[in-house]
Write a structure and sequence with these properties.
The protein is globular. The chain is built from 12 helices and 19 strands. About 30% of the residues lie in helices and about 25% in strands. It starts with a strand and ends with a strand.
């Protein structure tokens, strides 16, 4: 099969890779009708994370089941399925509490490389959720979004306690931030402030339900949020970047007693203890337990009540994956869909 491999920062190649095989009896093999590049893939692409030799890339996936191991009971060949970037058994005590991304048996799917034609999914019964039937092609992008960026934005909104009567601010205008706007709207937030300097992303944020756009960043961005909220700050702030600046901005934009949901993969983030102590804000986040939300998200997409696939603003053949990385790195694309 063909698949994307990162050899070094800035060096992504599409190469022949071995077809995946059933290794454990709990595995499934799926064929991927579409895959994509994630904003978190840009960390190693930019050299912020080390690239340890040639590394298969991709952790977002949907597909048709081709084969299952002998112990798989609930997933069968021919089904269209969606999974998360962490495989989970969905039965351990942590999974039952709703944190499948910290399953005691979790396995990172990214290490297996979902930017490819085929993928082995471990712990298939616990990880994969089947759609009611084979979807029409126009639904595939939205279902693919559910496997990570929608599920992550959804967790950000939940962790930030977004809901009726709340003002929600979203720090970050990538796919996760934009879909956090969509999630906050679904949660019934009264006011949603999207922080963005980029006109196409601002437009999509408004389409997803934002009521206000703030272009300022850092201390100026915090001051603008305070201006919009009577000097108090937002009830709920979703941090969807993962940098020191974005986390500091999120915490300082939150009113005392408010909630920060942080879902940006943190790099170099350090919190000042005394400032945090006197801020009186709640912090909750981490790798999104996407598996918890998949049944609900699939229903919303299947019934066409939400259209998260709009975050894909560029589509390329898998063979041109290197171009996809470049386009996202240069912010010429929000998120790139790849078709084998």
């Amino acid at each position: 099969m063909r698949g994307a491999v990162m050899h070094a920062p800035g060096d992504v190649r599409v190469e022949d890779r071995p077809d995946p095989k059933i290794i454990a009896p709990t595995d499934a093999i799926i064929r991927l009708p579409a895959t994509c590049v994630c904003g978190s893939d840009l960390w190693p692409y930019r050299g912020v994370e080390a690239v340890e030799g040639p590394s298969p890339m991709g952790h977002e996936y949907v597909g048709i089941v081709e084969e299952v191991g002998g112990a798989v009971r609930t997933i069968r060949p021919g089904q269209f399925v969606i999974g998360s970037f962490f495989a989970s058994d969905n039965t351990c005590e942590i999974c039952r509490a709703g944190y499948q991304s910290s399953c005691v048996h979790r396995e990172p799917v990214g290490a297996l490389g979902a930017q490819a034609e085929l993928l082995r999914v471990p712990l298939a019964d616990g990880t994969l959720v089947a759609t009611p039937d084979l979807p029409s092609d126009d639904l595939v992008p939205s279902l693919l979004a559910a496997s990570d960026v929608l599920g992550t934005g959804w967790f950000g909104a939940a962790a930030a306690q977004a809901g009726p009567g709340k003002t929600v601010a979203v720090v970050g205008d990538g796919a996760v931030g934009l879909l956090a706007v969509l999630a906050a709207r679904q949660f019934g937030a009264e006011r949603i402030i999207a922080m963005s300097r980029h006109e196409p992303r601002q437009k999509l944020a408004l389409e997803f339900g934002a009521t206000d756009i703030v272009t300022e960043r850092g201390d100026e961005g915090v001051a603008r949020i305070k201006d919009l909220t009577g000097g108090l700050g937002a009830h709920s702030v979703i941090e969807a970047v993962g940098t020191q600046e974005s986390m500091t901005q999120a915490i300082r934009s939150t009113r005392p007693g408010g909630h920060v949901g942080y879902v940006g993969v943190a790099h170099g983030v350090e919190l000042a203890g005394q400032e945090l102590f006197f801020s009186h804000v709640h912090l909750h986040g981490g790798p999104a337990p996407v598996r918890q939300y998949l049944p609900e998200l699939i229903d919303l997409i299947w019934d066409r009540r939400i259209d998260p696939g709009k975050v894909f603003d560029l589509e390329l053949p898998l063979e041109r994956a290197a171009e996809a990385y470049t386009a996202m790195d240069e912010r010429r694309a929000i998120k790139v869909l790849l078709r084998p």
